């Protein structure tokens, strides 16, 4: 009787889950995609993001995770490309949260808001499949009330997330103060 053996998942890979693509960054700033065995550009890494391909960027020498740094570099290039998403005021306010007591909460708040916005965008895309150019024109003319409704829902969700964040911070503050014997 012949037995076939299923190979064990590679390091960092679990059964049923695709492994993360590894991109190595060399001291000369070049990025090397270990899956395709080729050097890639930042634009090609951006395409991986757009395709939702899981990847990690590692320093070729130290193994340090550089993924966040590369993602920030892509955002910087997009912002400098002529159609920025963030105003100077928004960027300045984000910078002000670094080192602030609310820094951890702000990151979570922004992440949840972006996720909620992505869900709204996906619903809109799903509902608009198969529209002809004429139908799109009609949709654009009536989009204002529809968008107001969707944005109202999004803003309500955002407000609720902020209130949850505020309640969590209040509870944590009370716990810390209680540990020092200070009561509200």
List the SSEs and their pairings.
Blueprint: E1 21-25, E2 31-33, E3 38-40, H1 42-50, E4 55-59, H2 67-80, H3 88-97, H4 103-127, H5 133-179
Parallel strand pairs: 1-4
Antiparallel strand pairs: 1-2, 2-3
Helix pairs in contact: 1-2, 4-5
Features:
184 residues; alpha+beta; MutS, DNA mismatch repair protein, domain I
SSE run = EEEHEHHHH
Domain count: the total is 2
Compute the number of helices.
5
Rg (CA only): 23 Å
Helix vs. strand class: alpha+beta
Mean pLDDT: 80
Strand order of the largest sheet: 3-2-1-4
Quaternary form: single chain
Distance between the termini: 74 Å
Which word captures the global form? flat
Say how many strands there are.
Answer: 4
Strand content: 5-15%
Q: Percent of residues in helical segments?
A: 55-70%
Query: Strand count, sense and closure of the main sheet?
Result: 4 strands, mixed
Q: Low-confidence segments, ≥5 residues, pLDDT <50?
A: 1-14
